Amino acid sequence: MANARILVSDPLAEEGLVILKEAFTVDVKTDLKEDELCGVIGEYDALIVRSGTEVTAKVITAGKKLRFIGRAGVGVDNVDVDAATRQGVIVANAPEGNTLAATEHTMAMMLSLARNIPQANASLKKKEWKRSKFMGVELNEKTLGIVGFGRIGREVAKRANAMDMKCVAYDPFISKERAAQLGVRVMSLAELFTVADVITVHTPLIKETKHVINAKSIATMKDGVRIINCARGGIIDEAALVDAIKSGKVAGAALDVFETEPPLESPLLSLDNVIVTPHLGASTVEAQKNVAIQVAKQCVEVLNGGSAKYVVNAPIVPTEHAEVLEPFAELAEKMGRFAIQTVEGRLASVECIYGGELAAYAGSMKFVTRLVLKGLLDPILQTPVNIVNAEFVAKERGIAMSETVTEEAHGFKNLITIRVKTDKTEETVCGTVFVKGRSRIVSVDKYTMDLIPEGYVIVSRHLDKPGVIGRASTILGKCNINIAGMQVGRINAGEEALMVLNVDSEVPEDVMKEIRSMPGIFSATFAKISSKKI
Ligand SMILES: NC(=O)c1ccc[n+]([C@@H]2O[C@H](COP(=O)([O-])OP(=O)(O)OC[C@H]3O[C@@H](n4cnc5c(N)ncnc54)[C@H](O)[C@@H]3O)[C@@H](O)[C@H]2O)c1
Ligand SMILES: O=C(O)[C@H](O)COP(=O)(O)O
Fold first, then answer.
1. pTM, 2 dp
2. CATH no. for residue 330?
3. Which domain CATH number covers 65?
4. Does 357 qualify as catalytic in the annotation?
5. Residues 101-132: pLDDT tens digits?
6. 73 pocket-lining for ligand 2 (C-beta < 6 Å)
């Protein structure tokens, strides 16, 4: 996409900007209000943000050309991912680049909180020498409760363990064994609240984590507990925290993130035992370089027609599966394109069955199914359909989907079967990949084929008797349409047969009509199996 334009609406490290500018035209416009962003976004193919830009549904709708939204960081709670998905816009983040920066910030906050460092620093700079006022506590042997044991939670645990703290964690998606390897005991959230001396949260802000620290949960905590939030504002109910600090139940809090940012009106700012930083968790030279490069590379890939590594609104495929599944995904999309053009009626359901060696990749086949859907829907809809919105578009149109994985491959090493039902009929197409770059459609309904899924094809159902194929060829010859290959399948001689002709050019509708009107032809359709939109 040679003329693509990218808008960067938050500060991005130079290393990322260089990558973007080498490939495309880049504008950096920061501090835009929603309306200002809506006013300009229509000109851009991609938008790169950090946490400072709210990418609302309104912005996304105004971004008529948008194909990619990149978040140079982890949290995508400032992006309306559902709106992007509906519009087929890829949303990707850079989840690994700032892990250590946020971890080290958490450790700095925890130590500062224990030893009153910010308060003591401010006091001395006011020319005071108050040693007893800033008596601290040791972290050694204290219990650290980690809520959310992902990338940052785990790195925090490693460092806290090195300081001889006892680490316990709550995360519904982590196994006890995995945590135990890091010397961390997994427990329920309720138990964690009762045993921890210090609690640090490292989850995303989602429905389940909103206000997880609230008046009720604080009441169950140890008296004098200390609380840290370097994850997302909103995980802690700030009003409840203010009350608990004022009452002395909570001895102190260290906050890098807030329910409203900047939190200039927040009562938290006037409490002595609350220490705060202005969302600095990811603000290190190293982290900013990492996330900027990660997101810029993904943006360039996507705008050049490739895929992004950390897409948050498409099925996640482990890297080792992605390479193996690539030719299957390509075949699946072509099979979808073939099926939709050769079947009659309104699409009602699609069944995808993955057989043989594909059974080993069961967890990743959703990715291939999305490409089947893309192949089926993209040729018939005005809205662009892609891997991001394919499932959404199908659901919106009431098209039922199912996906099955089986060891059975009917004599092939691998087999993709797609069964398409419409309001009028049903068609089953099977395909296989022999070696990378060599795939075939091996059957259409009950007829065996060896069809290269490429270019232009005519699919006809006809009576198996002498002269029918010859007459169809004559019509094409007369119109200067070259036949590159031919497949004929039949079950019993003299009955219905299926013919698939690979032709070198498009077949005009009047020529198709002439073929359909021939005696002995029951139906004939023309299909393009290229990956371009039809
Ligand atoms: N302050 C900053 O500048 C800064 C910098 C980086 C990351 N962050 C934020 O830190 C948070 C964690 O980042 P990460 O990179 O570790 O993410 P991650 O995805 O690696 O980890 C998040 C963990 O939370 C767990 N989780 C999900 N729902 C949960 C629930 N209901 N209860 C408990 N745990 C739950 C997940 O299973 C996962 O293990 C994110 O909110 C991110 O946006 C903030
Ligand atoms: O989720 C993140 O990556 C952090 O909150 C960092 O946000 P920032 O990019 O605005 O510093």
1. 0.81
2. 3.30.1330.90
3. 3.40.50.720
4. no
5. 999 999 999 999 999 999 999 999 999 999 99
6. yes
